[in-house]
Design brief:
By secondary structure, the chain is α/β, with parallel strands linked by helices. The protein folds into 2 domains: 181 residues, Immunoglobulin-like (Sandwich); 375 residues, Glycosidases (TIM Barrel). The chain is built from 13 helices and 24 strands. Helix 4 runs parallel beside helix 6.
């Protein structure tokens, strides 16, 4: 079967012409990946267990609740969820890049009216599943906006992105009323969920204030942060508050914004108290890649994302008072617009298939190493990917599931969910280390590499075959050698994401890409969307604590070896 597949792949590759004769696409030599379970690097921090999305009202809709349940079930730690628009004025109807809760309005005399029903409905959905909110304080209620009209946008894929930034993106017309709104929200949350629960949340101000999400100045954002932090701490002194959620720290303008904010919270005059500095319990910023179409195929740019990550780490590390604070990458993705579908943005064609899953495996592994190299405390990286309710099947949004059917990328997170204990050594004598991916992206050889962990009763090795260019090439021969296993009989489970395994998208295409699948087709798609074993589980007995697994790993494929004893 393998020989047949290889011949077909070679035949297909030959049709791509001269491009495939370059080193970037040439046949890989056998790759050896050496894992030493005895060499501990650090605890296996579950930085992947963070998700977010623009449309908060999807949270409690049918497919939203289904997906949140699945995510909560494959994680051994509480999953944190971040959503926009939790204070936006409106009727609670969901739409692309829009959401509302009507948490704050004013009566005829201009007195505040608080209504927490929809916010509670969102947070209840998380709490019921053992999840926790990254409670985003924003955006501006219409009654508080310094430019309230026009307020709501109506956006569809293909529309100009800048058209969405209307009245909800402006500073408040009254900072004291804003602060009281924040105070009442935190106070209400403590009354509803309990002090201990709310202490475990992360409260953060706004989203990407260095671009059009904030129609004020840097100083006005800093002023808003001072009022917000003061209100949060007055309501619950032990609550955690952070910011600034800028995007693209490697951009000159973004770095200026981020440093001005960090200078202020460490040494500036507080707008509320008049004292030096402002409370900050964690630091947030965003990092995105930049795919494009090259010679008719999608070419990713992981290096762009990693450079943003690294620049943010460098900035934080330059402040001794802040270096050890937790960092949450508030959005960490292959590109910037989750709701920009493949049909109008062809560069997003990576999203339905295995390119998204292999990119996710390879990029998350490098996040650990970048943070380690800078000596900073990376707590989590939010994948800005959820689901889009009642949209066309596999339309090419950046989502984890489509119409309740899991896409291949979700299975990478299922793999990460089985990694626990300590992160251990994977020898870095392969084609790429984290520095080379950061500096060059993956444009020459394939990035065939792995990440591994060990706990008291299990070990796990995730292996990927990633390349920025999504073109067909022969499978790679990979030999994974693992040492440091206990001297006893154990079970080996080999899971795989590729075109034939853990892949609902390929099954959907094989069905003829039905626009309205039947109930039986949906059942088959749901099954295909689950993480699949490549082979039957097998008993093994490591010799001298060592074993070797050989495999053929397709381009953009991910394998997961799970040893349990």
């Amino acid at each position: 079967m393998f020989l047949k597949k290889t011949k077909l792949a070679l035949l297909h590759a030959a049709t791509l012409g001269a491009a495939l004769s370059t080193p970037a696409f040439s046949q890989q030599q056998p790759i050896s990946i050496d894992v030493n379970l005895a060499k501990v690097k650090a605890p296996m921090q579950q930085i992947w267990a963070f998700f977010g999305y623009d449309e908060p009202n999807y949270t409690y809709m049918k497919d939203g609740k289904k997906l949140l349940t699945e995510i909560s079930q494959f994680s051994k730690v509480p999953v944190y969820v971040r959503a926009h628009s939790l204070l936006v004025t409106g009727d609670g109807d969901a739409a692309l890049k829009w959401g509302s809760t009507n948490a704050y309005t004013e009566d005829a005399q201009g007195k505040p009216v608080y209504d927490w029903k929809i916010v509670d409905k969102i947070f209840d959905t998380y709490i019921e599943r053992g999840m926790k909110p990254i409670a985003q304080i924003g955006f501006m209620p219409q009654a508080l906006s310094s430019k309230p009209e026009p307020y709501r946008h109506n956006w569809t894929p293909g529309d100009k992105y800048n058209d969405i930034f209307l009245g909800w993106a402006y500073p408040p017309n009254d900072y004291n009323k804003w602060a009281e709104l924040v105070f009442q929200w935190v106070k209400h949350s403590v009354a509803r969920y309990g002090k201990k629960e709310v202490e475990s949340w992360y409260w953060e101000l706004w989203n990407e204030p260095n671009i059009s999400y904030w129609k004020g100045t840097v100083d006005e954002y800093i002023k808003l942060y001072d009022y917000t932090a003061d209100a949060v701490k007055r309501a619950l002194p032990t609550a955690k508050i952070g910011g600034p959620e800028v995007t693209g720290p490697s951009w000159d303008k973004s770095e200026v914004f981020m440093r001005k904010f960090l200078d202020h919270v460490t040494a500036g005059k507080n707008y509320v108290t008049g004292k030096t500095g402002t409370p900050i319990d964690f630091i947030t910023y965003h990092a995105k890649g930049a795919p494009k179409i090259v010679d008719g195929h999608v070419q990713m740019n992981m290096g762009t994302q990693l450079r943003d990550l690294d620049k943010g780490f460098e900035i934080v590390a330059s402040y001794p008072a802040l270096k050890k604070l937790p960092i949450i990458i508030g959005e960490s993705d292959p590109e910037g617009c989750a709701a920009c579908s493949e049909d109008v943005s062809p560069q997003n064609a990576y999203r339905n298939g295995t390119m998204y899953s292999s990119y996710t495996a390879a990029s998350f592994a490098r996040k650990y190493e970048l943070a380690e190299a800078r000596g900073v405390n990376l707590l989590g990286a939010v994948s800005w990917s959820f689901e889009f309710e009642d949209q066309a099947w596999f339309r090419g949004f950046r989502d984890l599931a489509t119409n309740g059917v899991d896409k291949p990328v979700l299975n990478v997170f299922r793999m990460f969910g089985m990694m626990e204990g300590n992160r251990v050594e994977v020898k870095q004598d392969l084609a790429y280390d984290f520095k080379r991916v950061r500096d060059e992206s993956v444009r020459k050889e394939a990035d065939i590499n792995g990440i591994a962990s060990k706990s008291a009763n299990s070990a796990a090795v995730m292996v990927w075959n990633y390349h920025d260019d999504n073109v067909p090439v022969p499978d790679a021969t990979v030999k994974v050698s693992v040492q440091g296993l206990p001297q006893q009989k154990m079970m080996l489970y080999h899971y795989r994401i590729d075109k034939e395994n853990s892949n609902s998208y390929e099954v959907w295409k094989a069905m003829g890409s039905p626009k309205q699948p039947t109930a039986e087709q949906i059942r088959l798609l749901e099954k295909a969307g689950q993480l699949a074993l490549l082979t039957s589980p097998q008993w093994i007995e490591p010799k001298n604590g060592q074993t070797t697994v050989e495999m053929q790993l397709p381009r953009q494929g991910v394998s997961f070896l799970h040893f349990k004893w």
